[in-house]
Amino acid sequence: MRITTAQAQALAAFVARVRDDWDHPGIVAAIQKAAPLGSPAAIGAALCRLAENRELRTPAMLADPGTHWSGTTVAKVAPPVMCVDHPSQPARACPECIAAAVPADQCAAWQRPKHTRRPTVVRREPTPADLAETRARADREAQA
Ligand SMILES: [Zn+2]
Known about the structure:
The chain is mostly helical. It has helices at 5-18, 24-34, 40-52, 95-99, 104-107, 128-143. Helix 1 (5-18) packs parallel to helix 3 (40-52).
């Protein structure tokens, strides 16, 4: 969904009243730059978060990634995973790492924010030693 001119103008009019130090054309320009990123509501939410930050002199960073997008559908779109050693190349398909024979798992050392990553559950089969220990403990408990 794209934001319409009428929606962008209305949103800019509201934000210009909240932030009288930001000029209306500049707000419209920031909205238009961010338009491909998400829904009008997501853009409005992100713009309002920026407006809350009194240290910002303009809303120019609206289209940039940042915490102002948190909670919106834009924030749920995963950023491209890039190789940590060759940031211009995609991780797991980095031609330079492939040429240097770096295993793909080591190439993709990009880390997601912790809250989006579920803990890895490690399951393993019990070893004979584990079973023997468990049996011994059960025997001890049965005798106690
Ligand atoms: Zn690489």
